[in-house]
Amino acid sequence: MVVTHSIAAERLTLEEFLQLPETKPAREYIDGKIVQKPMPQGEHSRIQSRLCTEVNKVGESQKLALALTEIRCTFGQRSVVPDLAVFAWERIPQTETGRLANKFTIAPDWTIEILSPDQSTTKVIDNILFCLQQGTKLGWLIDSEEESVMIFKPNCLPEIKSGEEMLPAIACLADWQLSSREIFAWLMF
Predict the structure, then answer these.
(1) Most buried pick, 23, 55, 75, 101, via CB within 10 A?
(2) What is the CB neighbour count within 10 angstroms for residue 164?
(3) 93-151 pLDDT per residue, tens
């Protein structure tokens, strides 16, 4: 059974939503509604933390890209919290002093969502598609139940990758290699 937690926004504006206190798990503002993300469980948490580490091993060390978990991104009249948001190095939001910004008001270059057991696949895909419409270059939807990764690119039909198939990365990380099988192997002990 898929459970969706949506809170009526009674004409709540995006600006009013952003004034609300943050919650754990995060809430998103989508089409005038507040949507509660599900609490991550074991598989979700493991994939999320390990994938962030793997992207940053190459991206951050070479100043190519930065992966962040659960960062609020507010753009295009939505406020979403991707499981992982990856930004090309030159697009990382910064303060005037060069520190990492606290508020991200741009779409990530790469958005990654990890499907939770009771999460609506349609709503997650809708968020990925919205990001692509706002300038995101790549979206992944990781489904541990199916052991597959659905790939989204602008103006292309989605692809499903599994097994040893290599997964695409954003252009600045083109040399970085990872297969679906490697992602799901992280769940084995």
Answers:
(1) 55
(2) 9
(3) 999 999 999 999 999 999 999 999 888 999 999 999 999 999 999 999 999 999 999 99
- Measured distance CA(139)–CA(156) in Å, rounded: 11
pLDDT digits (tens, 9 = 90+) for 137-167: 999 999 999 999 999 999 999 999 999 999 9
In 3D space, the residue among 53, 62, 114 whose CA is nearest the CA of residue 88 turns out to be 62
144: amino acid identity, one letter:
S
Element containing residue 142 per DSSP (H, E): strand 138-143
Cα 30 to Cα 53, 71, 182: the distances in Å are: 29, 16, 33
Which pTM does this prediction carry?
0.91
Class of domain 40-185: alpha beta
Q: Which is it for the CA torsion 71, 88, 184, 155, positive or negative?
A: positive
Structural contact between residues 139 and 115, judged by C-beta atoms closer than 8 angstroms:
no
